[in-house]
Amino acid sequence: EHLFNLKFAAKELSRNSKKCDKEEKAEKAKIKKAIQKGNMEVARIHAENAIRQKNQAINFLRMSARVDAVAARVQTAVTMGKVTKSMAGVVKSMDATLKSMNLEKISALMDKFEHQFETLDVQTQQMEDTMSSTTTLTTPQNQVDMLLQEMADEAGLDLNMELPQGQTGSVGTSVASAEQ
């Protein structure tokens, strides 16, 4: 039940990340429209919104990966518990067989025991592979002015003369503090 809830939470976080990506694209389209109309203040607001949506998408994706890693650990723990119980049964059978000294039974039990250890090794390797692949990539910080310039380039406009130099939006500071 907990494993299901963890997997469900990871998928929900992933969906939220995709939703933020869509909202970021919508904000970028609004930037282009505002630039074409010559309304730079509105374009700056939409740029700040786009950057905020992008950062939210990254955070949701990062949390999704972390929850997915926890789910993998829980799955491994459950599986290892089953393997441990099975190995305990093999050891008890081995004790009884060793007392009777039936070589065929000893050989069969040893094969079964080795198989259990191979299964354990495979599961351990799978857990390690899963854990190493759950790290998420971080993207470099985008500045509002760079995003405005990118959108202006896509719209075919020249913003170098229109943008006041030296001004930074409030999102630049809040993004930097969020990164910390």
From TrEMBL:
InterPro entries according to UniProt: Snf7_fam
Alphabetized Pfam families for the sequence: Snf7 (PF03357)
GO biological process assignments: vacuolar transport
Superkingdom per UniProt: Eukaryota
Family according to the record: Belongs to the SNF7 family.
Name this protein carries in UniProt: Charged multivesicular body protein 1b
Source organism: Struthio camelus australis
Lineage: Eukaryota, Metazoa, Chordata, Craniata, Vertebrata
